[in-house]
C-alpha cells in the first residue's frame, strides 16, 4: 500500500509538471539498471534503486569479485581484469543480456565518455547522464570556455588553442604571465594539472602534465590559465530535464584540497550573501542550458576570496562525489532524480520549491599518508568500526572490515557526511564522528581530517585552495608521545592478552586473574617495549594486592585503575590514569597496537631489543637506496647502472592510483642497480634504485 500511494503521488506530480512544461512526455519506464562502476557510488545507486523498486545489475572486475557492491546488487556480471570498468562494449552487452533499460555510470570510468554515451544511444539503452554533445562540449575545456563566454558566464583569461607545440605554449605562457596553471584539456580530479611558478619551470611542468593527462584521459593536450593564488573553489549542483528546464540546488565549497583534489566539502558555501548565491546558481543554469544539458551536473567556479568575483572553471557532466551534502541541505535524493529524469519525467521540483536548510559537511576518508605528502596507500582493512548512521549522519562506503583497498583504484575508503542546523553545529558533529571512525591495518587521513576540521582558521571559514600549504606547520605539528598514551597502550596489551580471564566478584574483569597461581597479595610484572615515532619506550605493568601500577623508562611507578567495557568483540577500556578518567578503544594485531583516542588513532609497535638492534643494522643511514613510497607501476626509469646523479635528480616515475610520482635522488651518488623493469608492479617499500656504497665509491 505504501509503494502504491507513493507511485500515485509521483504520477500526479509528474502529470502536473508535464502540463506546466506544455511538452509531450517521452516516457520509457525503467525497472532495471546496470551500474557501470564500483565501490561506494555503486552501493549508493543500489540503495536508491531498491527504494524505488528498480532492480540493479552490478559489474565487477577480477579484484572486485567479492566486493560489497556485487553482494548488494540483484545480479552481478564479470567484466574482466582490473581496468575492465572502461570496457563499454562489454558493459552494454551485459545490459542487453540482463534486460536492463538503462546504465548508470556513477562517476569516473565511463561517466564522461562521449563514445560510451553515443554507443548507448545507438544500441537503444538509456545512458543516465547528459547527451554526448554536452559531454563533448564541456569535456574539452577550450570548447567549454568559448561556449560559456557566449552564454554570459564569466571566464578566466588563458590559452585554449589547438597549437600544442612547445614553442607556441611557451609563447602563450609568457603572454599570460607567471605563476601559471597547466591543465589537461580533458582533465578532472586534479589529474594532468601542474603549476609553473616561473618561466624556467614551465617545460618540466608541461611534460609532467602531458604524461599524466595521457595516462588518465588518453589525450595529452593542455590549456594554460592565469593562476589565481589562494582562490576559493565553489561549485553549483544543477539538474536539467528533457523539456528544457533546469534548476540549481545551491552551492558547495570545496576549497580545501591536497594535490588539487578535494578532501573536505561543505554546503552551503560559507560567507556568501544571498544575492551572490543566486548569481552563482543562475550562472550555472545558463551554463547547463547553453549545452542542452540533461541530468545531474556540477558547474565549478573560481571565487576570489577577497572581492568574491567568480569565474567559470569547468563543468563535471556527472554526479559528483560530494553530492550528498547538497542532498542533506535540500532534503532531496539526487540519484532518484537521475532515474526519474532518465525515464523521461520532468524535474521533480521547480526552482522556487527547492529550499535550503541547515549546513552539511563531507569528509573523504582515504587510505593515504598525509605526513608523507598524502601518498596513496593500499592494503587490507583489518579493523573497521564506523559511526552509527542516522538522519544527520551518513557513511557512504563500498567496503567492509577485511576488504582490500586495491592498488588498482582510487584509495577512498568512505565519505562521512553530517548535517547540523548551522555550520558550527555541523562542524562539531563532523569532528565527533571522525573520532568514532576507527580503522587499523593501513594508514588513513582521519587524524588529519580531525586536525583540519579543528583548526581555528577552518572553524572561522577562512578557506581557500592554498589552506593546507598556508597552515602546514599547525596542521602537522610534531607528534609527542605522552606517558598516559603509553599507559593506555600497555593496558590494551594486558586486556587483550587476558580477555578470556574470569570475571572477579564485582563483575569487572581482573587482568591478572587468569595468571598461574595468582593471589590477591601476589605481585606480577609485565614489561613491553613500545615503539612510536622512531623511539622505543620501556613500559612496565605491575599488579600488587589489587592495584595496577605502571612506569615508563624506569621512572616512578604510577597507580592506575582500569576495566574492560563490554563492546561486543571490540577492545574497549575505561581507565583512570593520573586522576584522568577516559574510555577508549584499542586494537591489537600481532605486534601492532592501535589506540583510538579523542584526537584520532595512535599506533605503536611491540618490539624486542634484539629486533631493534637488527633493524638499526639493516637500515643504516637509510640513503643507500630509493624505495617505492606506495605500491604502483614502474612507469619509466630515467637512469641506468653506472650513472652519476646529483641530489634532487629525477630517477624514475611511479604511477599509483593514476597519479604520477617522481622518485628523486636523496644525495649525490652512483647508480648501482635498478629494482625492476618498466611496466612492472612494485610493492610499497621495495627498492627501486640502489646506489653504490659510499665506501666502495670512494
TrEMBL record:
It comes from the Eukaryota. GO terms for molecular function: ATP binding; metal ion binding; methylcrotonoyl-CoA carboxylase activity. Residues 145-343 form the ATP-grasp domain. The keyword DNA damage does not apply. Its cofactor is biotin. The keyword Cell division does not apply. PROSITE patterns: ATP_GRASP, BC, BIOTIN, BIOTINYL_LIPOYL, CPSASE_2. Keywords: ATP-binding, Biotin, Ligase, Mitochondrion, Nucleotide-binding, Transit peptide. Residues 29-473 form the Biotin carboxylation domain. InterPro entries: ATP-grasp, ATP_grasp_subdomain_1, BC-like_N, Biotin_BS, Biotin_carboxylase_complex, Biotin_carboxylation_dom, Biotin_COase_C, Biotin_lipoyl. Residues 616-692 form the Lipoyl-binding domain. CDD domains: biotinyl_domain. It holds the Pfam family CPSase_L_D2. It is found in: Mitochondrion matrix. Its main location: mitochondrion. One of its GO terms (cellular component) is mitochondrial matrix. This is one of the 2 subunits of the biotin-dependent propionyl-CoA carboxylase (PCC), a mitochondrial enzyme involved in the catabolism of odd chain fatty acids, branched-chain amino acids isoleucine, threonine, methionine, and valine and other metabolites. Propionyl-CoA carboxylase catalyzes the carboxylation of propionyl-CoA/propanoyl-CoA to D-methylmalonyl-CoA/(S)-methylmalonyl-CoA. This is Methylcrotonoyl-CoA carboxylase 1. It comes from Drosophila rubida.
